[in-house]
Structure to design on (770 residues):
């Protein structure tokens, strides 16, 4: 069988590889992002970044660790996820754990923890160095992680005497080119504050000070530097509006929101100035320069103020973080409310009174509770039948106008799945999607019968959006010549809306995902599914889109996040090639699963013999089975649609039920190969390869091929839902699964014979788990 020798590694050959823990594949470098932070970012929930040089170089132990823990508590008490950023053993880390914070707060006796700014990041990452990130370093990593608000103590700036030393903090340069909002007590008082804020103006950095109009910029320890503030803001919501506008305008410069220290922590300007001037003289006499000067000055000021400067510093940092977290929370709400697609209210779709009455007559649970949601595209399908066009003679119809018949029907992969599943089960299913104002009354626009339509309360109307559209050209036999899809509205479906709707649905059994979505909303589906305790079925949709799922954090068996996928042969091949090119087939966890499968030559020969005996030599030559087996550690249940040849199922499971299977089993007649591997984490590992023969249909019965695959997947989803309600896991039972696939294939045949993308006759198919 082509491909087995090159795709499957012999168990005796080990390949050593190093994979960074928590590597986020979408970032341009290896960055470890805490799961809590990733989940919040994907769901557009508030996160506030915190720097680490204040821990490694600013405040001594044990005050630093006490403050770090307290800052996290302050953020969480406001409903905001804290993310302390640092470089730990060469790994840029966003969201340090408690253990990592303790490690950072107790530097080695030789003081080898370094300050990490932009210029240092690459070198220190390459050499495995640990260090505290400055405002510049923290801003870079926060921006890469998608964090918008960063709270800290004081900004670096132009040092006194910079006209001769040129000692200017990289913090200022970074604020001029990184779009992040820094919340601080102004700039450090040891600096030349006038020159610092002139520099920020030159760099186009927005500066606002908290307080009524006329409130001056603070001076770190003291409330008033005497420098007028260009702008003022009077609430977190006010600051959030500026940050949001900065993003809408596409400005790539940062913003500085200055917070005067609370009265109880402020030190009078005259008193602190005397201490600073004395400390600066001492630094000059000792010839302290560069990175060492700030820690030296802060330590000397601590001594001169008898510890009051430290108390002040800790006090206003806590205040800054509280306000910064509040700004992050206000920004999250602002962006949810102002999104073109998002409106948290679940009543965005208008339903006529007559339709509502019909819907209420159905025996459905309350609108907030469903067993399953489908996240994906709703589209208006235009199907063009060209009776004189043939695939074998393109010259007869290309580059000219063709006579034919055009049909307008409801469609979109996600909607088709949802409708087919709703026709095939009594389990309540809700659609999560978005449409344009042309579909405000969705049921009317799509000409839906409310007695069979799914719950569409999760669909929102984007007032300035355009409903997704799909145009397909069919030849005289109903075969697809080519198609064009505009799914832009659905692709950018807001992650926050998805998370809201999944949470609103309550405990879920299954979530079906249409791969038309972009990376962020797809990741939100997986994250939200984990919280809801739901299993995920993925419909890859198209070759180019099928690759997207492998760019997500989908995990590896048995800690996978996608349970079932239903690719066709082209999509499966695209997934495999993408996984190989991304290096995903080199991960130690992946090899661990493949080794446990122990697919020897006997297994490969058995699959090849079974496939060829059933007339599937073409699929053997394409390497469909080995490519599928390579995908099983990521998605343990693959139902590959192979067109006129039916369906190939490839499964990775702990135990096989049905037919009294106790040993490896090969059944050519029923197209079945059961292969028992070794144990994985104390559990059995089995691979089941099965060919499900197609149902025959006469060519002259085929009306349209559009929606046949979606009908198959929708009924498969319905069967999974019904079996779960009856306490049966059909994915582990050979006999039950055979019946499930049979019903799903019958649904596809019904749709082939119908004008609509989904045949309404599906509701009349006998049920296996009613």
């Amino acid at each position: 069988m082509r491909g087995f020798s090159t795709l499957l590694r012999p168990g005796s050959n080990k390949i050593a590889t190093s994979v960074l823990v928590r590597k986020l594949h979408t970032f341009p470098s290896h960055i470890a992002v805490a799961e809590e932070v990733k989940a919040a970012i994907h769901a557009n929930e508030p996160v506030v970044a915190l720097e680490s040089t204040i821990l490694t170089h600013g405040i001594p132990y044990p005050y630093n660790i006490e403050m770090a823990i307290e800052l996290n508590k302050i953020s969480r008490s406001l409903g905001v996820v804290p993310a302390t950023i640092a470089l730990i053993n060469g790994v840029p880390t966003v969201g340090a754990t408690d253990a990592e914070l303790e490690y950072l707060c107790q530097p080695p006796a030789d003081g080898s923890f370094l300050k990490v700014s932009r210029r240092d990041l690459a070198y220190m990452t390459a050499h495995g160095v640990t260090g505290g990130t400055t405002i510049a370093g923290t801003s870079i990593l926060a921006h890469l992680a998608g964090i918008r608000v960063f709270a800290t103590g004081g900004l670096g700036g132009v040092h006194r005497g910079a006209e001769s030393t040129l000692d200017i903090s990289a913090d200022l340069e970074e604020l001029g080119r990184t779009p992040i909002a820094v919340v601080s007590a102004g700039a450090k008082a040891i600096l030349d504050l006038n020159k610092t804020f002139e520099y920020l103006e030159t760099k186009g950095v927005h500066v606002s000070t908290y307080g009524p109009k006329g409130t001056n910029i603070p001076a770190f320890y003291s409330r008033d530097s005497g420098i007028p503030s260009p702008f003022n803001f009077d609430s977190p919501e006010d600051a959030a509006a500026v940050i949001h506008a900065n993003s809408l305008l596409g400005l790539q410069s940062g913003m500085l929101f200055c917070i005067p220290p609370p009265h109880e922590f402020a030190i009078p300007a005259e008193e602190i100035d005397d201490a600073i001037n004395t400390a600066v003289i001492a630094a000059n006499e000792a010839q302290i320069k560069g990175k060492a000067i700030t820690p030296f000055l802060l330590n000397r000021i601590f001594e001169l103020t008898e510890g009051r400067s430290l108390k002040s510093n800790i006090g206003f940092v806590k205040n800054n973080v509280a306000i910064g977290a509040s700004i992050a929370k206000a920004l999250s709400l602002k962006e949810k409310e102002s999104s073109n697609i998002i409106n948290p209210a679940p009543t965005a779709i208008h339903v006529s009174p007559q339709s509502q009455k019909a819907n209420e007559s159905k025996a459905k649970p309350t609108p907030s509770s469903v067993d399953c949601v489908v996240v994906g595209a709703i589209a208006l399908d235009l199907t063009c039948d060209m009776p004189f066009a043939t695939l074998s003679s393109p010259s007869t119809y290309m580059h000219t106008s063709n006579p034919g018949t055009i049909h307008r029907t409801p469609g979109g992969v996600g909607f088709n799945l949802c409708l087919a599943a709703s026709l095939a089960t009594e389990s309540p299913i809700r659609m999560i999607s978005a449409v344009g104002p042309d579909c405000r009354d969705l049921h009317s626009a799509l000409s839906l019968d409310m007695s069979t339509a799914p719950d569409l309360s999760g669909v929102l109307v984007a007032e300035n959006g355009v409903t997704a559209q799909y145009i397909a050209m069919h030849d005289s036999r109903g075969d697809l010549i080519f198609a064009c899809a505009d799914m832009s509205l659905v692709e950018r479906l807001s992650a926050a809306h998805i998370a809201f709707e999944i949470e609103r649905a309550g405990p879920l059994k299954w979530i079906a995902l249409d791969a038309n979505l972009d990376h962020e909303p797809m990741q939100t589906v997986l994250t939200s599914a984990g919280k809801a305790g739901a299993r995920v079925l993925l419909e890859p949709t198209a070759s180019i889109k099928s690759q997207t799922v492998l760019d997500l954090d989908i995990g590896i068996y048995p800690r996978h996040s996608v349970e079932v996928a239903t690719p066709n042969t082209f999509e499966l091949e695209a997934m495999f090639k993408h996984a190989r090119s991304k290096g995903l087939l080199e991960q130690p966890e992946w090899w661990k699963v493949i080794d446990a499968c122990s697919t020897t030559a006997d297994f490969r020969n058995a699959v090849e013999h079974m496939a060829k005996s059933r007339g599937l030599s073409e699929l053997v030559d394409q390497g469909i089975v080995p490519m599928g087996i390579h995908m099983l550690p990521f998605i343990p249940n693959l139902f590959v649609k192979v067109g006129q040849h039916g369906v190939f199922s490839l499964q990775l499971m702990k135990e096989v039920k049905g037919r009294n299977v106790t040993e490896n089993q090969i059944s050519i007649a029923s197209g079945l190969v059961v292969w028992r591997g070794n144990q994985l984490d104390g559990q059995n590992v089995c691979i089941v390869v099965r060919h499900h023969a197609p149902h025959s249909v006469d060519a002259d019965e085929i009306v349209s091929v559009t929606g046949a695959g979606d009908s198959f997947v929708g009924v498969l989803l319905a069967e999974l839902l019904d079996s779960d309600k009856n306490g049966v896991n059909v994915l582990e039972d050979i006999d039950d699964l055979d019946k499930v696939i049979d019903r799903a294939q019958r649904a596809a045949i019904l749709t082939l014979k119908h004008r609509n993308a989904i045949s309404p006759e599906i509701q009349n198919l006998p049920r296996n788990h009613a």
The CA atoms of residues 434 and 460 lie 5 Å apart. The chain is about 40% helix and 20% strand. The first helix runs from residue 4 to 7. Residues 1-28, 340-367 have pLDDT under 50 and may be disordered.
